[in-house]
Amino acid sequence: MATWGSLGSENGEFDSPSGIVLDWGGYVYVADSENHRIQKFDSEGNFLFAWGSSGTETGQFNFPVGVSTDSSGYVYVVDQGNERVQKFDGGGKYITHWGAAGTGTANLILLRTSP
Q1: Coil, strand or helix at 87
Q2: Nearest to 51 by CA among 66, 34, 31
Q3: Residue 108 located in a structural domain
Q4: pTM reported for the whole predicted model
Q5: Are residues 40 and 49 in contact, defined by beta-carbon separation less than 8 angstroms?
Q6: Residue 26 is assigned to a structural domain of this protein
Q7: Is 110 part of any domain?
Q8: Which residue would you say has higher pLDDT here, 5 or 29?
Q9: pLDDT per residue over 48-92, tens digit each?
Q10: What's the CA gap between 113 and 7, in Å, rounded?
Q11: Which positions ≥6 away from 28 have C-beta within 8 Å?
Q12: How many CA atoms lie within 13 A of 9 on its CB side?
């Protein structure tokens, strides 16, 4: 069994990691919630890079809580505080997003749950 990272805000460190996924190529993506970013690692746990920062602009996050990938290599991030899902390529380049705060059509209400 292996352990990756420790508490902190440097590369390879986490503050409230809340989502993890392994993609088709063996890369691991972690939603690092309190640091408002996604971190990418190789299958051995070596840090590769991170993207995102705190904010509301495209490519920024407000408490990302979930991460998923598809067979084409796209990465989907549940950006809870901004009430949207953002789509990126495997290199962290922003593609598009869905949702916005509210209760109308195409709006999302994402509830944060306490651990």
Answers
A1: strand
A2: 31
A3: no
A4: 0.85
A5: yes
A6: yes
A7: no
A8: 29
A9: 999 999 999 999 999 999 999 999 999 999 999 999 999 999 999
A10: 20
A11: 20, 21, 22, 40, 41, 42, 43, 45
A12: 6
> Domain containing 70: what range?
17-98
Q: Is position 83 within any domain?
A: yes
Cα dihedral 75/100/113/74 (nearest 10): 0
C-beta of residue 99 within 8 angstroms of C-beta of residue 77: no
Estimate to the nearest angstrom the gap between the alpha carbon of 80 and the chain centroid: 10
**3-state DSSP call for residue 102?**
coil
Exposure string of 18-29, with b = 16+ CB inside 10 Å and e = fewer, is bbeeebeeebbb
63: domain CATH number is: 2.40.10.500
Question: What is the tally of structural domains in the chain?
Answer: 1
Three-class SS of residue 89?
coil
Give pLDDT, residue 102.
53
Spatial distance between the Cα atoms of 103 and 6, rounded to a whole number of angstroms: 38
